[in-house]
């Protein structure tokens, strides 16, 4: 295994550096207009926006860039009348989008921020397109629309329903329109039947932004460089202390490999490989890194990710998600948030996370009834976006639930899994097989199924009686589930699939005690029996992907607020998952990346032009900020505090 060879690699690095007598640490210019800490979607958007205003920009990253964006599915939640929406035959506008997302946020996002996000969404679509992100096959010049609900649509699709637009109560509040925009790339319509890996496109999105950044003469990217602390002068952020690794190919390659292994959490269900990679990378920076200070005359923008890769922070801020599979990258260790805190920044909504337990497609699972484990009562309409369903599962059912189906629905789902001619991805088939064959209980009556699941028989019988009555009448009187997914579940035998978004303390201890190579060796055995055994021991299978949504407390201009009085810290900004933002209120596919682009651009506009609002700033792109003091930068005094 690669990690077992790391000590020898580090010894070779020490020998090389000792022989040369020179650490070869790259030192960028000492002064820039804007310094960006973290190079994912938020960092790239901030750098490009600042450069467009004429700023000289330094971007640093602990590895080689990409962040959690590169690791993601690459979906971007955009609306307001984008060209892709028009291609798909849908009308949308900022007000319509706002009405939908206002319900999504459940009051956690203030109206000014949400309105600004929706008003600038179409412009952010055009910004991404202008910077090389393709949302349609150039040969056809038209987006491909997928009409069905899906965790990810078929490969040639570039726009689909990635949220709750068609579900209640969203559909009653706003005209439904698809907003999941998926980047196009050559060959994206090719089907790989054997792959059990999700067909992610985060790399497609980031590679386009990276090409735009690296070709911009106003932007310098410093790889293998971490932020240490914000430099403060007279109460203002004046720069960033950084620690950079030597400019030696061997050490850069090793650090990049560590970051890569740590992100492959789907192959590391114990989490031990991730922990080891983080430890080794930290020691590399401690032993070989050198610190130096970089001045930022206009602003420092922190866009270094969230915190779910940091076990102690998860324990502190999101204890109900302990042991869940971190989704993101090694930079999601809370270091960006901590850097902002070190400058006096406040944090907010740190308990907010998103956890996924995707089951549909196959879309037969949308016709199931989900019940809690105590009273056997439904707690949501099952046709909502999966992260919303899991949010409700945590809030109303302690994170655990049973997915109830009947014999007819079981057979339909099984047939869809086995049909190799349909559009299911390999990973969707595999997860469905696990659900039906490893996580399933059976009973010939509701009472028998209740006994098998440890549920109250009278509770399950009453719940299913009402559900089936509603289905026959064509209307869900509990939660308003769409009629197309509402059907009687009345043909025995009945089945219940275990859906658990939590993992207990003994099980977490068991996983941590396993050797790093355990996941590799387990592939040598039949998987379904192993999964059944794990579930019997209380280990959640499949693991529950989770990432954090809370972060530094920022105003609508993305200025970090002081923890003492919640007033902006001059010159200090945060974006992406380092900050609390639009996605913090409620996550749907693509909202985190869309929020990152929105927040990164706003932070850069305010830092360079003194105004964050896109429309207000449009007339102030002056080409160069070189040699100009902050007082000379155009500032719209009347709207400064609000924007």
**Strand content of the residues, in percent?**
15-25%
- Structural class, please? alpha/beta
In quaternary terms, these chains amount to: single chain
Largest sheet: 8 strands, mixed
Count of individual helical segments: 23
Mean pLDDT: 91
> Could you name the ranges where pLDDT drops below 50 across 5 or more consecutive residues?
622-643
Q: Determine the fraction of residues in helical runs and give it as a percent range.
A: 25-40%
Write a concise keyword list for the protein shown above.
643 residues; 23 helices; alpha/beta; disordered C terminus; 15% strand; 21 strands
Textual characterization of the structure:
- This protein has 643 residues and is of the alpha/beta class.
- 37% of the residues lie in helices and 15% in strands.
- The strands form 5 sheets. Strands 1, 2, 7, 8, 9, 10, 20 and 21 form an 8-stranded mixed beta sheet that branches.
- The radius of gyration is 25 Å and the shape is globular.
List the helices and strands and how they pair.
Elements: H1 6-20, E1 31-37, H2 41-52, E2 57-60, H3 67-71, E3 76-77, H4 83-87, H5 94-105, H6 111-119, H7 121-130, E4 145-146, E5 159-160, H8 170-173, E6 180-181, H9 202-214, E7 219-222, E8 225-233, E9 236-244, H10 249-263, H11 272-288, E10 290-302, H12 311-317, E11 325-326, H13 335-342, E12 347-348, E13 353-355, E14 369-371, H14 386-397, E15 400-406, H15 407-418, H16 426-437, E16 440-443, H17 446-453, H18 457-473, E17 494-500, H19 505-513, H20 518-522, H21 527-536, E18 545-548, E19 551-552, E20 559-561, E21 568-574, H22 591-609, H23 614-617
Parallel strand pairs: 1-2, 1-10, 2-7, 4-5, 10-21, 11-18
Antiparallel strand pairs: 3-6, 5-6, 8-9, 9-10, 12-19, 13-18, 14-15, 15-17, 16-17, 20-21
Helix pairs in contact: 2-9, 2-22, 5-6, 10-11, 15-16, 17-18
């Amino acid at each position: 295994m690669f990690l077992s060879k790391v000590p020898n690699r580090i010894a070779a690095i020490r020998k090389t550096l000792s022989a040369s007598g020179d650490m070869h640490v790259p030192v960028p210019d000492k002064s820039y207009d804007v310094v960006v800490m973290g190079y994912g979607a938020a960092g790239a958007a901030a750098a490009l926006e600042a450069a467009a205003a004429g700023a000289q920009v330094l971007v640093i990253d602990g590895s080689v860039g990409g962040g959690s964006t590169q690791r993601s599915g690459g979906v971007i939640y955009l609306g307001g009348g984008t060209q892709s929406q028009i291609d798909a035959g849908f009308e949308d506008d900022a007000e319509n989008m706002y009405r939908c997302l206002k319900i999504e946020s459940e009051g956690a996002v203030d109206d000014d921020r949400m309105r600004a996000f929706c008003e600038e969404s179409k412009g952010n679509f055009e910004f991404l397109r202008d910077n090389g992100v393709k949302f349609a096959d150039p040969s056809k010049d038209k987006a491909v629309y997928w009409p069905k609900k899906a965790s990810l649509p078929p490969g040639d699709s570039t726009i689909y329903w990635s949220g709750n637009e068609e579900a209640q109560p969203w559909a009653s509040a706003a005209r439904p329109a698809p907003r999941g925009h998926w980047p196009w790339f050559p060959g994206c319509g090719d089907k790989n039947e054997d792959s059990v890996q999700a067909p992610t496109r985060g790399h497609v999105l980031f590679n386009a932004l990276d090409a735009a950044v690296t070709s911009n003469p106003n932007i310098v990217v410093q790889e293998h460089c971490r932020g240490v602390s914000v430099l403060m002068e007279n109460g203002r952020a004046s720069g960033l202390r950084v620690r950079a690794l030597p400019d030696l190919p061997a050490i850069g390659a090793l650090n990049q490999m560590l970051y890569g292994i740590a992100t492959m959490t789907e192959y590391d269900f114990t989490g031990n490989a991730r922990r080891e990679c983080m430890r080794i990378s930290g020691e590399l920076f401690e032993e070989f890194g050198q610190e130096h200070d970089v001045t930022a005359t206009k602003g420092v923008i922190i866009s270094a990710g969230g915190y779910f890769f940091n076990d102690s922070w998860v324990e502190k801020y999101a204890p109900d998600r302990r042991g869940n599979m971190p989704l993101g990258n090694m930079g999601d260790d809370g270091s960006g948030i901590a850097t902002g805190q070190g400058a006096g920044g406040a944090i907010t909504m740190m308990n907010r996370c998103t956890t996924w337990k995707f089951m549909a497609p196959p879309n037969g699972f949308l016709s199931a009834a989900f019940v809690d484990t105590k009273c056997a009562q439904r707690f949501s309409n099952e046709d909502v976006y999966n992260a919303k369903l899991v949010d409700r599962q945590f809030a109303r059912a302690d994170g655990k639930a049973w997915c109830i189906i009947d014999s007819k629905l079981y057979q339909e789902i099984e047939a869809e899994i086995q049909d190799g001619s349909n559009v299911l991805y390999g990973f969707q088939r595999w997860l469905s097989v696990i659900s039906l064959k490893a996580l399933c209980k059976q009973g010939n009556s509701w009472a028998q199924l209740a006994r098998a699941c440890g549920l109250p028989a009278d509770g399950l019988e009453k719940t299913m009686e009402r559900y089936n009555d509603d289905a026959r009448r064509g209307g869900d009187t509990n939660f308003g589930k769409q009629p197309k997914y509402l059907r009687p579940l009345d043909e025995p035998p009945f089945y219940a699939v275990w859906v658990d978004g939590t993992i207990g303390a003994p099980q977490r201890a068991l996983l941590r005690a396993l050797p790093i190579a355990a996941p590799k060796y387990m592939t040598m055995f039949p998987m379904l029996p192993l999964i059944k055994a794990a579930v019997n021991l209380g280990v959640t299978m499949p693991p529950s992907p989770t990432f954090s949504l809370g972060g530094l407390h920022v105003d609508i201009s993305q200025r970090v607020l002081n923890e003492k009085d919640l007033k902006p810290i001059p010159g200090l900004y945060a974006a992406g998952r380092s900050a609390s933002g639009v996605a913090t209120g409620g996550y749907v596919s693509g909202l985190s990346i869309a929020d990152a682009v929105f927040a990164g651009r706003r932070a850069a506009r305010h830092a360079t032009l003194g105004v964050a609002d896109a429309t207000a700033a449009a007339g102030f792109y002056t080409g160069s900020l070189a040699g100009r003091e902050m007082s000379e930068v155009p500032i719209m005094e009347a709207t400064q505090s609000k924007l």
